[in-house]
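User: quick one, fold this
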Amino acid sequence: MKIVLTGFMGTGKTSVGKELSRKLGYQFIDTDVLIEEREKKPVSLIFKESGEEYFRKVEQAVVEEVSRLNNVVIATGGGVIKNKINVENLGRRGIIFWLKADPKIVLKRVMLEGGKRPLLDVEEPLQEINKLLTERLPLYQQADASVDTNYITPEETANEIIEMLGLDAQTVTVDLKERSYDIVIGSKVLRRLALRVKEFRPSKVAIVSNKTIFPLYKETVLRSLEECGITPTVILIPDGEEYKDFMWTYHIHGGLLKAKFDRDGLLIAFGGGVIGDITGFVASTYMRGIRCIQVPTTLLSQVDSSVGGKTGVNHPLGKNMIGTFYQPSLVMIDIDTLRSLPKGEFSSGLAEIIKYGVIADKELFNSLEKNREDILTLGDSIIKTIRRSCEIKAGIVSKDERESGLRAILNFGHTIGHALETATGYKKFLHGEAVAIGMCVAADLAVKLGILKKREAGRIKCLVELYKLPGAIPDGINASDLLSAMELDKKAKAGNIRFILPESIGKVRIVDSVGMELIARVLQAHV
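Assistant:
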């Protein structure tokens, strides 16, 4: 994130910038101070000896240099915004805030600082301020947002900017060097969406969602975007896993073509895992790749599918068999959207959180056992739980983006889970329900192989059922159908299946070759 402060002299750019950098832990740069250090003389003397034209050339070079930095607050000189090149450089992956103050307050502040500014070295400084402000008003209006600093302190101004950007929320970073991105987690995050979208300077914006979730939040999302001058194209598809296929992918591609999207366009995936997966896949394939922001609205998508860059669509013969690795530019998680979820959907997401406890964090697993009521009622534990889940996934993805090794452990419970979804046409189970069954089957398989103690397998099943998730394969599902589906799984090789199996709560191992005969026996015991 790059935060740029512009505005007339005396509006508080330096003092507010220092407060922002202190609160956020960002580097602070004052372009005027940097110019003075390099020229070895104050700005007033540069103006006097070399003239304004020379100063503006030096200023442009400095602005271009500091605009390349990240996690920085830049306080600019009052005239920086007069130069279109400066505005373009500062706005690239950054948000520009215009700090405003009345002319009389500006003059008072400048006088209190001591010494005259070069541009106010005139007989009637207040008149000159009014004149310059009138001239620059259209230029300052290029900023992405404004804050009136007349009667608030620098700290209060900094707090307002932090809130406007959603930086007061919890943040987890997926560290992929030049392709790193943030996961923002908090309440009322949807209201802050527009400024974060503007950070990417898209030529066009499209929201991809479904006909169930979008009407619930349409007003909030569209108002946020339109207040920042963004009028998005809205593309809706039906709600359900069965619609995550090539037909609806083609429909979304068509919507983008009709809207004349180019490579600078940006997609907002607004919905659950189906929307996130299909939108990410479209983003990765439209014009060979455009940017995408994930705004997950279900617990499952918040803690799992929106993070990590796995995209895909289903085929009748297999789930997610056609897809790409394509990272989003940003993930915005608003926990308030969980209040509109049916209980089954919420429990479905908890299956993935249980998975994180089993594969990587015993304390998270214990917390799920202890804090059930607080989690189910969206108490204080829910943000901590979502954040910890995202941290685990972000850490794994940062080390193994394309599942060449470590990332495979995220598939715990998914081998059987995907087979259940495929064998039932994606219509009988929510994804988390299928994964919950898959985790219990995998735990029993680990017991049969002597990897896991029976008591630990029992804890996994008890926690699954504590959150009203299924822990066994229901009647009417044939074990042979599941085996057939597994043979087409991405993890199948030479008649054997790779499984992620628990050794204990918080630790798993990758078992590359589990024979079909043993799998069949365990499945039969669950059917």
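User: anything notable?
Assistant: The first strand starts at residue 2 and ends at 7.
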